[in-house]
């Protein structure tokens, strides 16, 4: 075995293997490789000793107690977090959403209109085309064809009333010409 | 859980820590090259272990499980430790550190041991360092190391090959026949 071959072996093999067989024969004849091997082996043995000699300055019992405490604290923290989120959801559900709904409904009034010559469902179509709003509600009961109910802002109710006054008048021809309206006999 | 059960569980956990702490601390030192960092990592490993003890499936060794926790924490804390190292190098930090030297003899032993370990830490990337420490410094077989690291046996052997070459290069460089491309 040449020095190059031996060095290649020494650079990549476990230290137990570099003194066996042909490698051992080479070591017997080459002082320089012998010295290198001694250095490598001694250095790694020192590393092993050093690593096995390190010790923690904290007692295991203290580590264990602290770990248990910290773990419980973390779990408690997690529970608090979940509790906090639930509380926020509850507050939003119980307080904020009803308030939003209330504020959306604030100022809305309900009015029942009685008609003279037009049918309620026809007037509803008329009002829907003229008074458009998300909060407007128009309710018609077929049992009472000459009336309907409307829920909306005072302004919308006033506009609906004006429309009804304009078209629902038996004495005027307009009662007959409203497109899509049905005249009740 | 009743107080008696709780006491038994606590006692069992203390025994568990006593049994495994030396190995966990050694891994932490070998992976971080820093005692303070290793103490923090070791503590955190047992916090995690205590929290997740009921999720340990038992289909591998406890050692392997603890090693994987250690490794994850070291990887997570690497950026933090780099920052700490840069702060510790400041002159202001040096004076503060010296205050805590209560046993200079022991400190020298620990420091010289750490210097040797740091040779490995500084010379090798994390994966090679892990393989070298587990196989050559802690006597695990490549198969055992592969299991602990979740790697293939052949990858462990390849990493070990490279790690040894890197660690030994500084010594072999003095040989008159040493060629850089030989390794």
What does this structure look like?
The complex is a heterodimer of chains A (185) and B (183). With 185 residues, chain A is mainly alpha-helical. In chain A, 63% of the residues lie in helices and 8% in strands. Chain A has seven helices and three strands. Chain A has helices at residues 3-12, 21-29, 31-53, 60-105, 120-130, 154-167, 174-177; strands at 109-114, 137-139, 147-152. In chain A, strands 1-3-2 form a three-stranded antiparallel beta sheet, covered by helices on one side. The N and C termini of chain A lie far apart (123 Å). With 183 residues, chain B is mainly alpha-helical. Chain B has eight helices and no strands. Chain B has helices at 3-32, 35-52, 62-88, 91-98, 104-123, 126-137, 142-149, 153-172. In chain B, α1 runs antiparallel to α2 (35-52) and α6 crosses α7. Chain B is globular, with a radius of gyration of 19 Å. Chains A and B meet through α1, α3 and α4 of A and α1, α2, α5, α6 and α8 of B.
Short description:
Chain A is built from seven helices and three strands; from the N terminus they run ααααβαββαα. Chain A is mainly α. Chain B has helices spanning 3-32, 35-52, 62-88, 91-98, 104-123, 126-137, 142-149, 153-172.
Through-space gap between termini of chain A:
123 Å
Largest sheet of chain A: 3 strands, antiparallel
Segments of chain A where pLDDT lies below 50 for 5+ residues? Answer: none
Largest sheet of chain B: none
Termini gap of chain B:
60 Å
**Average pLDDT score of chain B:** 77
Q: Please state how the strands of the largest beta sheet of chain A are arranged side by side.
A: 1-3-2
* Number of separate strands of chain A: 3
* Helical amount of chain A: 55-70%
Give the fraction of residues assigned to helices of chain B: over 70%
Shape of chain A: rod-shaped
SSE order of chain A, one letter for each helix or strand:
HHHHEHEEHH
What's the arrangement of secondary structure elements?
The complex is a heterodimer of chains A (185) and B (183).
Chain A: H1 3-12, H2 21-29, H3 31-53, H4 60-105, E1 109-114, H5 120-130, E2 137-139, E3 147-152, H6 154-167, H7 174-177
Antiparallel strand pairs in A: 1-3, 2-3
Helix pairs in contact in A: 2-3
Chain B: H1 3-32, H2 35-52, H3 62-88, H4 91-98, H5 104-123, H6 126-137, H7 142-149, H8 153-172
Helix pairs in contact in B: 1-2, 1-3, 1-5, 2-3, 6-7, 6-8, 7-8
